[in-house]
Specification:
The complex is a heterodimer of chains A (220) and B (222). Chain A is an all-alpha fold. In chain A, 80% of the residues lie in helices and 0% in strands. In chain A, helix 2 packs across helix 5 (90-116), helix 2 (15-48) runs antiparallel to helix 7 (132-163) and helix 2 runs antiparallel to helix 8 (174-185). Chain B has a single domain (7-213), classed as MetI-like fold (Orthogonal Bundle). Chain B is 78% helix and 0% strand. Chain B has helices at residues 7-42, 47-62, 65-78, 85-110, 114-122, 127-157, 171-182, 185-213. The chains are: A mainly alpha (220), B mainly alpha (222). Chain A binds chain B through residues 1-4, 63-64, 67-72, 75-76, 79-84, 112, 116, 147, 150-151, 157, 160-161, 164-165, 167-168, 175, 178-179, 188-189, 192-193, 195-196, 199-200, 203-204, 207, and chain B through 58-59, 61-68, 70-71, 74-75, 78-80, 152, 156-157, 159-160, 163, 172, 176, 179, 184-187, 189-190, 192-193, 196-197, 200-201, 220, 222.
Chain lengths: 220, 222
Amino acid sequence: MFDYTFHWRVVWKNIPELIQGASLTLQLTIFSSIIGLLIASALVLFQQSNSKYLRSISSTWVSLARNTPALLQIYMAYFGLGSFGIHLSSYVAVLGAISFNNAGYMTEILRGGFSSVSKNQKFAAEGLGLSKLQTYIYVIYPQVLRTVFLPMTNQLIWAMMGTSLGIIIGLQELTGMTAFLQSQTFRPFEFYFIAALIYLFIAKAVTLSATLTAKKFLRI
Amino acid sequence: MTYTFTLNDLFFMAQGALITFVLTITSGIIGSTVGFFVGWARTSNSKIFYYLLGLYIDIIRSIPLILQFVLFNSFMAIAGYPMSPFFSGILTLSVYISGYVAEVVKAGIDSVPKVTRNSSRGLGMTYLQDFIFIVLPIGFRNVFPSWTGLMLGLMKDTSLIAVMGATPPELLRSSQIIINRIHEPIFILLGAGCFYYIMCYSMTYFADKYEKHHHIKSIELR
């Protein structure tokens, strides 16, 4: 039944290219998470504001980002914006789409974090004579950070998996690079297996360092 | 000659939406069943089960779905059992979602207080009776919202089977086929987005209704 000989040497020879792809994946993951986090913090502030327009911007963004597939969002950025004469490179398209997606999910995480801090704490801080800024910095944010930290690391891994969709619009991050290499060498299983191991390694490294940080500094 | 969007194209997209729906239901049912047993096994006292199945869940959750599709497909090919992309897509999706469902099921079983379980055993129930009549109803209520969230994610993830060229085309793939013909990407993609939005929204709507009817309060899982 199993008459297939594995050829791992081909993969070994192409390791530098794979690592190059992995570094692109990492880069995209980190940038898209930072941009997403920045947008999400703004969107959360919008949600709490009194302006109806700001609140509707926030809710529209969140529901659009969460109710459509990431692949569709990438198509939108790459092919869709082309209709308006905006031609993005595949790198920028993936970065933009994943940031958009991330921002939606992170807004929900942050909202959960803020709602987990009881209102009484705010009143108590006020009663103790803290200013509004002091209340946020010393009372609210530290607690929000504790609830939000682990879900955020999960989201970071989601972002990493999302960047793998770059293959569809021809970006040579880890998956795209692997697809390219296997098409040259006709060794699909070996290449994809190693790529999967690299993804697993990155994800494990992120989770492990996050749990260690959480234990050491946040005492979760 | 210019091509325009016709009624046939709309039917084609609706058919794609139907395929997406079928994919979601099929792999949702298989994946939830497998995930239920995996999650249940993880709550048993056996450490071997706990760590072995933990590894299974870990691997599934940290490899991109796109890679899992291709890996599974090429593995079946070299093992001598080539499969149609559609069928292997359903299998991969089921395995993929089972990893997530297992975590939810475990959280649900753990959410039942120890005291409750002890007292049901104290009333003379067997383990199975306790599990079926006490743990399942309480746990199900607690994790139902998370489970619906997973199913929504699954619906969006079905769009990835297009990578392997699965036929019949699901929603995103069929809209891409139309785009190739009439070169009107933004219009078609917006339409596909609307289809997804409507499907997700109606799923959320029914889930909400069910939760309201059974007084389920969503509990944040961490």
